[in-house]
Alanine racemase (Nitrosospira multiformis), 357 residues
Amino acid sequence: MSRPIQALIDPAALEHNLAIVRRHAPRSRVMAVIKADAYGHGLLRAAEALAEAEGFALLELDAAVRLREAGYRQTILLLEGFFDVDELRWIEQCHLSTVVHHPEQLAMLEAVRRRATLDVFLKLNSGMNRLGFTPQEFPAALERLKANSAVRQITLMTHFACADESDRNDSIAAQLQCFNLAAGGRNMPRSLANSAAILRFPEAHADWVRPGIMLYGSSPLAHTTAEQLGLQPAMTVSSRIISVQTLRPSDGAGYGYAFRADRSMRVGIVAGGYADGYPRHAPTGTPVLVKGRRTRVVGRISMDMLHVDLSEIEDAGVGSPVTLWGRGMPVDEVAQAAGTLGYELLCAIAPRMQRVT
Ligand SMILES: Cc1ncc(COP(=O)(O)O)c(C=O)c1O
C-alpha cells in the first residue's frame, strides 16, 4: 500500500461551481481561470469538468498548447501575454488569445506582418499598478493595435485590486470609473471581473467574467463562507493516522516541543507535512477532521507528518481517516488558521501528492 495522503478532485463540484458563476453572471461568457495547474487541481482534469465554459485563462504557454492539442476549441487566453516574439508563432498556430499589457508586446506584435489572426485582450492599469497601460497610455496603445493588420479582435480588460474587501467599495468604484472612461463609448467586448467581483459587482460583469477561486469551491470573500455562497470544495486532501503516542503531562510533541501536554492525552501522527503542501506555519489549534470529527493540529508541522489531538476521539487509532481540508473541513478555515488564503493551499499541493478523481 502506498503512503495514504491524496488529493481527491471532484469534477461534479467544479461543474456545480461553474453553474453558480452562471447564476451570478447570466449574461456574461465565462473564462475559467485554470492557471497554476488549475489552482492545483490538474489542468486537463479541471478543463474536462469545466468544458462548458466559453473560455479558459492561464499563464503557461505549454499548458495552453496542451489544452488545444487535447481538443478544446474555446477561447484560451494567456493572462500575461507573450514574453518573446517566437511565442507568437505558437499563439497563432494554436489560435490562442493573448493579453497585451506593455509597449514591448505592442512592438513585438508590430514586427509580425501577417494577415489578421490574433485576438488580443488589451489591459488597462486602472489602479492596481500590476499589469497594464496607464489611462494616459491606453488610447494610443489601442490605436496601435487597431492599426495592426495581425490583430483580429480586441477585448478591453482590467483587474480589480480590492474586489474581495467590503470596506473598500470606493476603490472598486474608482477602478470601474477609470475603466469606463478609458473604454469610452467604444463598441468592443470587455472583461473585468474575478470571483469576488462576480459575486459583489454585477455592474462589472461585462462580456467576459474571469472566475478562478470560486470554481474550486473556496470563498473569495473574507466574511462569507464558501458554503454560504453555495460553493462545493473541488479538492479534498485526506490521509490516515500512521502512529499514536500517549503523552503524560508536560511531555512535548514534535520538533522543538512546540506543543506540551497539560494532561495525559493521545496524539495521532498523520502522514502529511509541508513537503506535501500542508502549511508549515499552521499553529496548534488548526482544525482537522479525524474519523469525520473535528479536532486540532498540535505542535509543529514536520516535512512529512503532523500531530493531531485525539483526546476527544477515543476510538481513533492507526489507520483512522483524516481530512486535512475539503469536504467537511473548508480549506478557507485551515488557511485562516495558518495565516494564509485558500488560494495558496490549493496551489501549493506538492507534485508528490497523488491526485485522484
Ligand atoms: C487577471 C486575472 N483575472 C482573473 C483571475 C481570477 O481571480 P480569482 O481566483 O480571484 O477569481 C486572476 C487571478 O489571480 C487574474 O490574475
About this structure: The radius of gyration is 23 Å.
